[in-house]
Design a protein that fits this description.
Layout: H1 5-14, H2 21-32, H3 36-47, H4 50-55, H5 57-71
Length: about 80
């Protein structure tokens, strides 16, 4: 299925780097009139689509890596030798 204008706008929006999650949530509400939760549900479906990957492979790959890191449980760090 071809990407919609909203899909393309979301990919464009996600090319930006967000240091402050609260600023991003506000921007999502203002620009897309969606809650942050709904936006991320749409984004998750979007980055799984081959059409999105063809449209913007770098952004989609980065978003997939980020999602995969978030989904993994945190691994305990090994203790450093010689530490007390």
């Amino acid at each position: 299925m071809p990407l919609t204008e909203r899909d393309m706008a979301i990919l464009e929006f996600e090319r930006l780097w967000w240091a402050d999650p609260s600023a991003k949530a506000t921007a999502i509400r203002e620009r897309f009139e969606l809650s942050s939760v709904r936006y991320h549900q749409i984004l998750d479906d979007l980055i799984d689509s081959p059409e999105a990957f063809r449209a913007d492979p770098l952004a989609v790959s980065r978003l997939r890596r980020h999602r995969d890191r978030q989904a993994r449980p945190a691994q305990p760090r090994p203790a450093m030798e010689g530490s007390c």
